[in-house]
Each structure stands twice: as structure tokens, then as C-alpha cells.
Design goal:
By secondary structure, the chain is an alpha+beta fold. The chain contains six helices and six strands, in the order αβαββαβββααα. The protein folds into two domains: about 90 residues, Alpha-Beta Plaits; about 80 residues, no CATH class. The chain has a four-stranded antiparallel sheet. A two-stranded antiparallel ribbon has the order 1-4.
């Protein structure tokens, strides 16, 4: 019984005179490893407003609000609340551009105002020219058009968004009085109104 006790005393003495195993934060900065999951932040240059991050967030820490400012104009506001974020990284993993939202090496996030613990990004919206409903963010549609390549021409809404910057087409194509309103094909339409336009063209109803 004496030897174990002696060993414990020796370990206690070594522990007393040796350097601590823990870091000396905050006096000494901490070197974080690669892949550290810290504060999520949006990058407006890469975020396209697709709201995939909000769809997969298990903590529901991301709010999506579509605001129509005037007829045919509005914005989509994505707000990330890092005060309730669990830093799981699902938003970063689901981002279709892979850089729209990323987890940075920021971990000193304490504060006294929870209302200020947010990160926001705004994207311009596209509205259906017929029913006025939200189609999506213009940057998201342009991103899809670029990814689809020639296949984008199968959907007029997608290729119109891609060619809008070229200003080669009229903003609103003239509508005829005939039952077959083919000009509706060349309009920014939501899926429901697009289907209705196709039915009208095919069956006149």
C-alpha cells in the first residue's frame, strides 16, 4: 500500500511544478484547427437567395421573409440568428453555390443584446407577371440558367432571367385578343400560370 501512495504523491508534485495542459485563453490567442465550426456568415457575392439553408436548419435559426415593396418589385431577406444556432454546418453543406453561407472561425460570440446577434442578406425577387406570386430570387434563377446551359431554353422564365441584362427583349410582350395567347410564353410566370398558358395554347381553355 505504501508504493501506490508514494506514486500518487510524485504525480501530485509533478503536476504542481509542470506547465498546465490547458490553453491560456484569453491571454494567449487560440489556434483553431481546420474544419472548426464557428459562426455562420453569409457572403452576398455568392448567396443567391435560394433559401436551402433555411430549409435544412434543424434549429430553425434562419428566417426567410419575402417583402413586396411595389408592384413587380421586392426583396427576399434571409436572417441567420447565431444566438440559437447549434453550429451543425448543415446550412453550409446544403448551399447550392458552396460559398453562400459558411461557418467561420469565430467563437467569441457572447453579448447582451440577442437582437443584434444576426447576419442578414437581401436578394431581389422575381414576381409572376400574371398572378403576382413570388417565383424566386433573380440571382437564383440566373444561377440555375447558367448550370442548365442549353437546357435553360426549355423554360422561358429561366432564359428570360438570364437574358434580362442584355435588354434584348421587351419587358412585357403584347397580349392578343385571340384565345391562344402565345405571347404569354415569353413572360415571367410562376409554374401554375405557365401550366395554364400551355393548356390555353393546346386546348384553348
Amino acid at each position: 500500500m505504501k508504493k501506490p501512495k508514494l506514486r500518487e504523491i510524485m504525480e501530485a508534485i509533478k503536476s504542481f511544478i509542470s506547465e498546465p495542459y490547458t490553453s491560456r485563453f484569453p491571454e494567449v490567442p487560440v489556434t483553431l484547427p481546420d474544419g472548426f465550426r464557428g459562426r455562420p456568415r453569409y457572403d452576398s457575392d455568392f448567396c443567391v437567395g435560394c433559401k436551402a439553408c433555411a430549409e435544412v436548419c434543424p434549429a430553425r435559426a434562419i428566417d426567410v421573409l419575402d417583402v413586396q415593396k411595389s408592384k413587380g418589385r421586392g426583396v427576399r431577406k434571409l436572417t441567420q440568428h447565431y444566438d440559437i444556432c447549434i453550429f451543425c454546418g448543415q446550412c453550409e453543406k446544403a448551399c447550392i453555390t458552396e460559398k453562400g453561407i459558411t461557418l467561420r472561425k469565430e467563437f467569441e460570440l457572447s453579448g447582451t443584446d440577442r437582437g443584434a446577434m444576426i447576419d442578414e442578406v437581401e436578394k431581389e425577387l422575381v414576381f409572376c407577371e400574371k398572378c403576382g406570386g413570388v417565383i424566386g430570387a433573380i440571382e437564383h434563377i440566373k444561377f440555375l440558367a447558367k448550370k442548365l446551359g442549353p437546357l435553360a431554353f426549355s423554360n422561358p422564365t429561366v432564359f428570360l432571367a438570364r437574358h434580362d441584362d442584355l435588354a434584348l427583349l421587351e419587358k412585357t410582350a403584347p397580349r392578343g385578343e385571340a384565345p391562344h395567347k402565345r405571347s404569354d410564353y415569353i413572360r415571367m410566370l410562376c409554374p401554375n400560370c405557365r401550366r395554364e398558358a400551355i393548356f390555353t395554347e393546346e386546348w384553348g381553355q
